[in-house]
């Protein structure tokens, strides 16, 4: 069996996705024309997407987290105030949501889409850097290579049916040993930078404004020398 490896979804210096790569997630995918799928399993997908214009969606076909990298999205869900999602903010669109999505030219985003399952949690949940954070559990002492960090988080969205969570996390600097990543995780760095060391010793630095996807089971060590804040999407089981 091939050992999974992390996938860089976006570098701060990257060009926007191609205007029409045509990698959709299904016949009802409203973003099909602009998707670049970098990782995919039977249950989920991650990558980047370019989108502009307006689309009305009667029932969003899956649960998807969008992290805006440039431009701005406006999401209008019936019965709720319109949400504006600017650069480096994120939004989770639940399966079954009826909404209008608008974007100016030049808008593109990183995404994690949960495509399997039938659970419906209609609505749009915004994730912004100014949300309050609460102390959270640091890595276990046996995996740390130094002092235990001070960690905080705010879990904004949870779908227990598919073991999916999304929110904000930050931490003081720390280092830990390489181990198989316990969760499938998309992370978008809001502040600071982290070195992720892969099984072959390759060090991938993920800096402010950049997005990476780490598959479940991928060997990965963490070293951060400055305060790090990130948007995360994690899933405990990915097919």
Radius of gyration: 17 Å
Structural class: mainly beta
- What string, H for helix and E for strand, traces the elements in order? EEEEEEEEEEEEEEEEEEEEE
Number of DSSP strand runs:
21
**End-to-end span in angstroms?**
14 Å
What CATH first level of the largest domain would be assigned?
Answer: Mainly Beta
Protein name: Cupin domain-containing protein
Domain (S)-ureidoglycine aminohydrolase cupin: 164-232
InterPro entries: RmlC-like_jellyroll (IPR014710), RmlC_Cupin_sf (IPR011051), UGlyAH_Cupin_dom (IPR008579)
Pfam families: Cupin_3
Detailed description of the structure:
The chain is mainly β and 239 residues long. It contains no helices and 21 strands. The mean pLDDT is 93.
What distinguishing features does this structure have?
239 residues; mainly beta; Jelly Rolls; seven-stranded antiparallel sheet; six-stranded antiparallel sheet; 0% helix
